[in-house]
Write the C-alpha cells for this entry.
Amino acid sequence: MSAEVKANVKKLTDELKETHGITPGLAVVIVGDDPASRVYVNNKKKACEAVGFISEEYALPAETTQEELLSLVDTLNNKESINGILVQLPLPKHLDDKAVIEAISPLKDVDAFHAVNVGKIMLGEYDFLPCTPAGVMEMLRSYEIPVEGRECVVIGRSNIVGKPMSMLLLHENGTVTICHSRTKNLAEVCKRADILVAAVGIPGFVKADMVKDGAVVIDVGMDRDENGKLCGDVDFENVKDKCSYITPVPGGVGPMTIATLMKNTLAAENINRIL
Ligand code: NAP
C-alpha cells in the first residue's frame, strides 16, 4: 500500500514538474546522534528521492542552542524551494520542542504538529493530517474496513499518535475510547474493540486475551525486543489468529507514515502556491 501511495505521489510530482516546472522540497532537521532518529531520517530522505522531491537534510550537533535551531527554522520558513519542514523528535533535552514546533510555519508543517494544524484536526477542516494516524485511516479505507458505528479503542494519548488517531476515527463516526496508563480494566476495554489501535511503546503489550475474536488490530508501536530487534506493541504471534486483520511490525504502519509524509509535502506545495 505504501508503495502505491508513493507511486501516485511520484506521478503527480512528475506532472507538476512537467506542467509548472515546480519540484516540491522537504527539509528534515535532525539534532544530535540518536540512532533511531537517524534511521527515520534516512528513510524519509530515501522516500523523497524515490518520489522525485528535493530533499534537504540539516544535521546539527547535539549541543545546538535553541536560538540556532529557531534561526534555521526561520530560514526554512522563508526558503521558497522548501514546502515542508520536519524537525525530527525527540530533540536533546536542553531544547524546547514545543517552541520549535510552534516556530514552523503552519503552511509548511507537514507533520501537522503545529497548534494551528492540531486545532484544524479537531474541527475536521485540515490542510494536513498527522502522518501516522492518516496512514492508519488510509489502510482502513483501502481494505474497506468500516469505522462508522463500530467500537474503536486507541491505547495511548500522545499528541502525535493517540489523540489525533482518536479524532480521525471519531470523524469517521466510530465510537471511540482512549486508554492510557491510568485506565482501569484495560484488558476488558480493549476486548470490546472492533478496531484496536495500539500506540503504547511497550513491546508485545497487547496480548491475545485483550483482543476480541475477529477484531481489526493496528500496531503503531516501534519498539525493541530483548534482543534489540524491531517489534510492535502487539504480541503478533499469539494475536494474529484471533483477529480479522493485523498490521505487522516492521512493514505496517511505519511505511504508511512515510508515504503520508510524501503526500503532505506534495499538498504543502499546492497550499503554498495558492496562498
Ligand atoms: P508516548 O508519547 O510515550 O505515549 C505512550 C502512551 O501510552 C501514553 O499515552 C501512555 O499513557 C500510554 N501507556 C504507557 N503505558 C501504558 C500502560 N501500561 N497501559 C496503558 N497505556 C499506557 O508514545 P508515542 O509517541 O505515542 O508512540 C507510541 C508508540 O508508537 C512507540 O512505540 C513509538 O515508537 C511508535 N510510533 C510509531 C510511529 C510509526 O510511524 N509507526 C510513529 C510515531 C510513534 P499516559 O499518557 O498515561 O502516560
User: Anything to note?
Assistant: The chain has a mean pLDDT of 96. Residues 33 and 192 are 42 Å apart (CA to CA).
